[in-house]
Amino acid sequence: MTTHHYATIEGHRIFYREAGPANAPAIVLLHGFPSSSHMFRDLVPKPAAGFRVIAPDYLGFGYSDQPGAKVYPYTFDNLAGLIEKLLFEELRLKKFAIYVQDYGAPVGFRIASRHPDAISGIVVQNGNAYVEGISPAFEPLKPFWANRTTDTEQPVRALLTAEATRFQYTHGASTPDKISPDSWTFDQHFLERPGNDAINVDLAQTVRHSRKQPVEVANRAHIRYNPECPFADDRYGLIKRFAILAGVAKFAAIGDTTEALYDEIFDINVKGTFFTVKKSLPYQADGAAILLNTSFVDRTGLPASSVYAASKATLRSFVRVAAAELVTQGIRVNAVSPGPTATPIFGKLGQNKGV
Question: Is CATH 3.40.50.720 the right assignment for the domain spanning 239-348?
Answer without folding.
Answer: yes
